[in-house]
Specification:
- By secondary structure, the protein is mostly helical.
- The radius of gyration is 19 Å and the shape is globular.
- The protein has a two-stranded antiparallel ribbon with strand order 1-2.
- Among the domains are: 22-99, no CATH class; 204-272.
- It has helices at residues 27-30, 35-48, 51-64, 69-83, 96-101, 106-120, 122-135, 147-156, 169-185, 204-218, 227-231, 239-247; strands at 252-257, 260-265.
């Protein structure tokens, strides 16, 4: 995920004008952070071993359960590409169930899955960058998470060829509603009707997952700009106390040289989530 990578300081760039028309989609309209369906797809994939067999088996199970096939297909088609972002810093699918089981709260599980959504969905990542840019100048509680503001961001979006998003008004409204739902699931927005936010508490498992994702992108320099934590609305003053939590985990080693402190994950990082940290 090269787009938006920090350039050596705490600034994060807008992604407006960074994506081609073939890179944007309305997947978030079909499925927000659906923990139950996502986990079911992951476990089915782990049983089947390939996506083609998983596709067929998923639809057969929906038919057998007399569930709405078309609705299930839309949700599946939205969730599947997010899961295909596994690896590259996010838990591989073979270990994702164990990572989710290590989460203490539903909120923590949603925070892990939020990382997959951000990694895969260019429009989500664009809107998130717009908010994080504002977060560099003001507090989370000052951000406006109303549908009107989110739709304003969508209206401002331009592809690399200067074309806007091909979203109808109703799609933009639904997209904004599902984006707000995702933020509510990870603890940023506290109520269904609320339009302001808070810095969410992060469980140990999503904290380490987001840290490892950041480390994969920026190697030993990751703590200068922990993108995974920033996507979870952790402003810079929170990075030091969150790092202290990493120091207490057996999945991270602490290093210090010439006044610089950094943290490295152990080998087979995600395989260690079945063990006590």
């Amino acid at each position: 995920m090269p787009d938006g990578r920090p350039s050596g300081n705490f600034e994060i760039n807008s992604l407006n004008g960074q994506f081609g028309p073939d890179e944007t989609h309305i997947g978030l309209v079909a499925a927000s952070l659906d923990l139950e369906q996502t986990r079911a797809i992951v476990e089915l994939y782990n049983e089947c071993g390939d996506w083609e067999t998983t596709n067929d088996e998923w639809l057969e199970q929906r038919k057998a359960g007399r569930l709405t096939v078309e609705g299930s297909r839309r949700a599946y088609n939205a969730i599947k590409p997010r899961l295909q972002e596994a690896g590259g810093g996010l838990p591989p699918l073979s270990q994702l169930p164990t990572v989710l089981d290590a989460c203490r709260k539903e909120r923590d599980k949603h925070q892990v899955l939020f990382c997959y959504l951000v990694a895969e969905d260019a429009v989500v990542r664009y809107v998130l960058h717009e908010y994080i840019q504002q977060l560099q100048r003001k507090s989370v509680s000052s951000l406006d998470f109303s549908n009107e503001q989110i739709i304003a961001f969508l209206d401002q979006f331009r592809h690399t060829d200067d074309s806007p998003l091909d979203f109808s008004d109703s799609t933009k409204d639904r997209w904004g509603t599902n984006f707000r739902s995702a933020l509510r699931s990870i603890g940023v927005i506290q109520s269904k009707q609320g339009t302001d936010g808070d810095v969410p508490n992060i469980g140990d498992t999503p904290l380490e997952t987001a840290a490892y994702w950041s480390w994969q992108q920026l190697d030993d320099e990751w703590l200068q700009n922990p993108l995974g934590w920033r996507y979870l609305f952790q402003p810079e003053p929170f990075w030091s106390p969150q790092s202290d939590r990493l120091a207490k985990s057996t999945r991270w080693s602490t290093h210090e040289s010439h006044g610089r402190l950094w943290y490295e994950p152990v080998e087979d990082f995600y395989a260690n989530f079945g063990k006590t940290a």
